[in-house]
Amino acid sequence: VPGDGGQATLAMQTVYEVVGAAADRCPDNGMVCAPPMAGRAYHADGIEVTYAEAWREIEALREAYAAAGWGHGHRMALLLEQRPEFFFHFLALNALGCAIVPISPDYRHEELQYLLGHSEAHTALAIESRIAELQHAAPIAVVSFENFTVPEAPCLPPLSGAPKRESECALLYTSGTTGRPKGCILTNGYYLNAGAWYVALGGRATLREGDRLINPLPLFHMNSQAVSATAMFLVGGCLILPDRFHPKSWWRDVVATQATVIHYLGVVPPLLMNLPPAPEDTAHQVRFGIGAGIEPELHGPFETRFGFPLIEVWGMTETGRIYADCHEPRQIDTRAFGKPLPGLEARVVDDEGNDAEQGELLVRHTAEAPRKDFFAGYLKNEEATEEVWHGGWFHTGDTVRQGDDGMLYFVDRKKNIIRRSGENIAAAEVEACLQTHDAVAQVAVVAVPDALRDEEVMACIVPISGIAAEDALAQRLFAWCDTRLAYYKAPGWITFRDSLPTTGTQKVQKTQLFDEGDTPTAGAIDLRQRKRKKR
Prior knowledge:
Radius of gyration: 23 Å
Largest sheet: 8 strands, mixed
Number of strands: 26
Helix content: 25-40%
Low-confidence stretches: 1-5
Number of helices: 13
Structural class: alpha/beta
Strand content: 15-25%
Distance between the termini: 48 Å
């Protein structure tokens, strides 16, 4: 089972050392790849860089940054989108003990202003088209990626000593779906452990030397930039970076890049299942997919059609480690995501903090060292850090159920539980039901106030292209839910949208579904009278 960092990383202190070892061991293996994409502003014809080629670039940059005075404890913000060169700068800086602050390319002025000011990044490296925005957002030096010259080091003197496992490696900001994003301080130890943990999962998720993992998640996200990338570096594998998830070209890219592993998001399986059958469905070399959020109703049909298992996992930016339902018999007709493991202990507790079959998931390393290789804390927010760690356990905010055999099953985010007439309804369950209807492209379920029942279920739905967003569709969708769920779970309100607000990782931002002062039910279709207890 996964342990504390794996034997391969015990003597290593930095991610830079991991890549150096891979460059020595397998110099001709691909390290990072961008599939070809017509019309893309960078590497339109595609590019693959070997470990030997990458190492030469990393070493040249390391020497240049060092000569300019960059050192231990300095921070540089990076806005390079999905360019493979991101890793050259990241690893060169990592070698010197500098931390990076990846920036979402979707951020706009106020978000950039907050991130750059809060992170106290000393300099930003950005693509040419975004430089003016960054300069307008914060009074820091901004360097062009396309016309790169090494920036002067900050006036702040470096910390003494060489970088260690405890040194800051990156500052990653959470998605901010419940307020201002928090800056998670992630150390080298976090990265090394996260990658080694992934490598050691085993079962149907066994990684091999030279594997090739295609991951549509952005490089400001912990999975792609920390977990997946470090795991690939440890096995001398290649991280394949599409600019984002493109359903129509997905299998073409998977085949062309010879991917052996895919990473998926909850939105990926239904969109791929909606595509017409094609030779690429099974012409690939994929051994398994790994991710979170596939609906149980789609899990088995997806594996049958495309010919490989999807491994459901659970993890957070703060934890680094993941749970995975990767050992047979997997429970693909449920929301199972694995069992507690040494190094990632778990408790399930009710609102009073008592052990329960269903409740909030709490995790830790061990009682003796609960925070070992978790995030090091929220930047400038010790109060929030201590709050999530109260009682010696990290409070995830996720509601789960635990079986008698220890298996954990995802229910929903705790804040997404709808309380209607004393019944607790998981928004995720209603979303899962609606998502399986062939007229639904995207859905978000939220609670809205109800004078009689405290809260009512509301579904915000984007219909499939060509399907009319009308009352008749709402009635069909209600009936779909009413025959599959307990009567009180069906949506009492349905509203149709052209699109839903999402983060860069395609998570719906429910706090942005309605503007401040809006009445959520205004203009929505009222279905409350159809909700009747079945006899």
